[in-house]
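Quality-control log, excerpt.
Job 1 of 2 completed; input and output follow.
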Amino acid sequence: MRTISIPKSGTGHSAPITHVAFSPDGSRLATSSYDGTVIVWNTADPARPTETATLRHRRLVNSSAWNPADPTLLATASADKTVGIWRVPQEGPATLVNVLARHTDDINSVAWLPDGERLICVSEDGRATLWSVLDGTFLAEVGSHEAHCMMVSVSAEGLAATVGEDGLVAVSDPASGSGAARKRHYDSSIEGCAWSRAGDLLAVARDDGRVDLLTRELEHVLTVEVSSSAARAVDWAEDDSAFVVGAYDGSLHWFDRSGERLHTVADLRVWPRSVAAARGLVAAGSFRNAPHLYDMATAAELSGPERATHGPNALAARGDELLIGGDSGTVFAVRIENGAQSRATPIELTDGPILSLTTDGDTIYAGTYSGHVIRWDGTRASSECLGAPIPSLTVDGGRLIAGTYNGEFLFVDPATLRLEERIEAHGGSVKSLAPIPGGGFLSAATDRTVEAGGARGRTKLWEHGNLVNAVAGLHGPEGSVVASASRDHTVKVGRVARTGDGGWSTGAPQTLLGSDESVKCVSLLGDTAGPTVLAGSYDFNLYCWQVDWADSAGTLASGRVLAGFAQGLSCMFQLADGRVAVAGWDGRIVFVAVDEYGAHIQHTLHIDDIAQSADRKQVAA
């Protein structure tokens, strides 16, 4: 397993901040990041937090937790499937005390029991496990979910609450080791929870934009309407008089204990995947290099990030320009001539991340994390907030289609950006859309399915064993080929055809193996008779397969690594000349072509070089 290696430029992180955690006395803040590090900040002066230590994992870090009994111990949870136990003194270097490494999947969250000797870890595999920390002994499994377990919170009296994408909230008493867990089920995914400081109330952050307050017995006390987007994270003030919620509308929301709204802070730089409160302060994650700190009572920002990160999330093309959209909210329009970058123009569309891009002629459309669709045709226009992040966009029949985190297709008027129609499309986030010549589009979602068709009457082509991250099509006179990339570590590829009744038919798709981790993006090269499949993985590798329709067993055993990156791969785009542009979160962008000798890399760019060479003149309001 390779280690993330993203060049650091200045202070703070080099990629978005996934989690924030205050020390028990509120004097220090640990921030976890996609760059594979945890940075510990001294927050004694919240207007000027300073870095005091940097801890490193091999993969992105999802969360951390300070020990309640020993303020120098910090647990860190990583996608490298380990939990690190670190001693982080107020002065002097941090040291690694132990590693809890017997996990089968990414660790999403950790929480200490009040004795400070045992730790609960929850994982993508749905399990909640209890560990003796200093000797690394596995003690027990204290809970399980049918889907990803997303968070654990332990109350002052030692009750452990776990929540997951299966909509289950479970409360157990791991200290006693007796008694069945209390459970409550929701129709929506639950990604965040937090016990009040007194331990009498559990706040549960729901995917439908609400927060429920529950008793220890999981009896309902109150439902708070937070946002039209998913509520992702929640934490309580030290006196339990108020709580703060981070929502996928890009905002932070303050409420008192009775559910009355106190403040709302909208800042597209904030990644509200995590919030934490202590000592009259609130911390929130960020898509930039440093956390955001606020006054708990007034919601006034005390400090924030000073530098954007440019991790690419989306690619598209406009004429002979490659368009690159990422975490900074800037789209870079890069013209490539004779295998080299000849010009890069920045288009400043928004302050928050761009998740998706598509074009219609010279017009650029961008889907954002905050749930807006932005149009650029020389001037900037934005839709209203559409209620959820927009991870996918395409144009079909003159209409702009947005795939949302909520599993919907939104049909948006391209001229006015008004929402015309909203359709429940998939049972999970619509991660990827791809146009089909002659009308219709492909879709891939976290409900594990790949579909084809128009707005209604769609055909399921196939299903994966886990969520589907991306779908791509290759179309020619002999028909169409579709490929999809999944978290089940596979790519599926199959020939599809329109049927007389307007549906789609497909034979059994071939399964391509190679990746050791989730496959994030996919594309196709060559012709439909014997296409070349490209796929990028969270294991940092770019894979390549040559499909032989007559020998599926041979294809299963084929494939090679075409290139290695320094972080996971994020997106691909098939260019008009048949090449494919491939981007990684380390900022590299490679151009892949295929000839009689097979697929090969023609040239490479880097997003930091593009950003530095681009004309910094602001071209959008």
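Job 2 of 2 completed; input and output follow.
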Amino acid sequence: MNVTVTQAEQTEQTPENETAEPAIFGRLVAIDPLDFDPDGGTEKLVIVDPYNHRKKREEGDTTEPDAALIASVEEVGVQQAIILRPQEGERDGQLGIVIGQRRSLAAYRVASAAAQEGREYRKIPAIIRDDLRGVDDEALTVSMVENLHRRQASAQDDVDAAEQLALLVKAKKVPKARKRSLAAAIGRTEEELDAAHKVAQMDAETLEDLRDEEIEFDWVELGDYDEVKDVSNAQVTLMRAKAKDEQEGNTKRGAWKTAMQELRAKKARTERIETLKAELAEKKATTVHWVWNWSYSAARPLEELVSAIGNPMSEQGHSETCEGHAATIDPDAAEVVWLCVDWKKHGHRIAGAAQGDDSDDEPDEEEAAKAEAVREERRRVKVNNLAWRTARAGREAHIADMCKDKGEAPADVKDLIMRTLLVSDGHYVHYVGSQEHGAMLAKFLGDERLTRHPKDVISSLIKKTASRRYWWVLFAHVAGYFEAEHMKDDAWRGEPHYHHGPSVRGRIRPATAEWISFLKHHGYGVTEVEAETVATAEQEAEAEAERRAEQERQREEREAARAAAKEAEEDEDDDEDEEGDESGSGAEFDDTSEDEDEPEGDEDGSAEGDQEEADEE
């Protein structure tokens, strides 16, 4: 086994006017290619390092040198030095290839052929990195950096190596700064490093298909995509969400997370539908395809039918008495809908049709329109309630992430807290001891004790919270209030009318729209139903502003009219006063007055009184 040292170790003295190169450059040596064992035995000096980025595979093996590389080594030898590091444990005394596996294998094959034919062959230039001995995470990082921009390294190589690196980081409890440095060295983030184990479970075909289609998902996104890849349009949906986040500069992946939440819900609905189909098949129930508008079908859901004498139709009763009993599955709600396949033939009537109508026809146009409106509203409520509930998980996860922030809260977060706690828009803010609010705090702050003993935990929570984090604890309190009070399942429909029942709805609460808009500003990706709710609230606010403006205009017109009337009346009184003054000044100098002491107005008053009596008669 020959290792020829061709350069003095860098620890030797250097001239005074030169600076010693750092030890990271290692020792330059020449390696005999036949001292390399591609299979990793213990008899030869050089093996492939266990933490080399590239891995041997049955399919798509990227460690194999191609014909062009072998020809190049045959012609000019290995021109770029490989990197080795001393091994430990049972392989102590051997050198592992960190960088240059393909070059070494090409040189090994050229040397093997030359040795058999009795020809000379070239040695391999190599750098021995003693500083990498026992430092597995650094060795793996160096290997990944080398291969990162080489097309020959497969996507599976990347994620396998990343998973190894993630496990090493976790096992060694590497400090966060070093973890960040290792991730940055391979062009990834800490978040991606944590997600590497998920990506490592992906099949190679999916990874290579994405690479061939030049779809650039990072490791976090790859792990998410693998979870929902079987959902229809998943790839397109996620690509659009990623583009939206990039366009809006949303570094918190708001649109992506929302898209994933909806795709997960869609996947769950699909799985639920398959389960329902299996259950119906086991019951040997007759099934028909779902119809979006039953008006154009001979079949009708039982909830739209009544018996010949007007009684509601139940699933059990109909199954026992009608041959047309069947089931279908609502794809949006993922629930079984029971129906009659031919309601006319089996003597049923449409709910709302006039009793005693022998024609068995549909209700008249007006009644049919009303019935259709009721059905559409019922369906809209069902679908939107489901969408609103689906959005909750993603929204609460986003709030919990916000509450993990260890820095100073932004000004608008503080404003929201102060406005809510001090003013609260006239609404009562739940005390932290309430069960629902305690559950919200526990979820947002990650402390389950708040669910069971909120009062006992508050003091310890304050003690262990850094002062700069106070605002975020208060934010969790306020977030719990908004979620509990203003984001209930039916909040998208507007505020229920407590005098006329919950089916009568008023305007959407301003706090509901305010809360959704606030979270959107902080990186949350709003769902379709949330966006519609905010838009409706804005339209209602505009209509209310116009109504108030109209009321104010009418009030101003009435006040102007009253002011004008009053002014006209005052002008008339002034004219009468002027006439009275002229008449009074003439009587003042009248010497013919019979009695100066008797008020002159008595006679006038008496005459006026007589005239009023006459008028009354």
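Post-run check on job 2. The two ends are 145 Å apart (CA to CA).
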